[in-house]
User: Fold this.
Amino acid sequence: LTEDQRDDVCCRYQKLTQVFITQHWKELTEYQRDRVCISQKLTQPFISNHWKELTKYQRNYVCLYQELTTSFKKQLINGNISKVQGFIPTKTMRYIDMDFEEF
Assistant:
């Protein structure tokens, strides 16, 4: 995919699986990561694992757009991320798992 197509996939047109996001996280640009933090559903374990590497803006997006519980937000902000429990998303959505290389 072109960079623009990847931006679109990460941002608004597709709901990506957590497995897909995790698999490709390191390959994403900062802009694409920003968009994932805003528009994709991220699990608490994923957020916990990547919290320290997120930019200030990405952390803000996670807190604003991920519908986190107040206690989980406090744990993140206070740096107590090792105490985080697993999370099962409450919303059911249709996710598409795709490989950028297949296009």
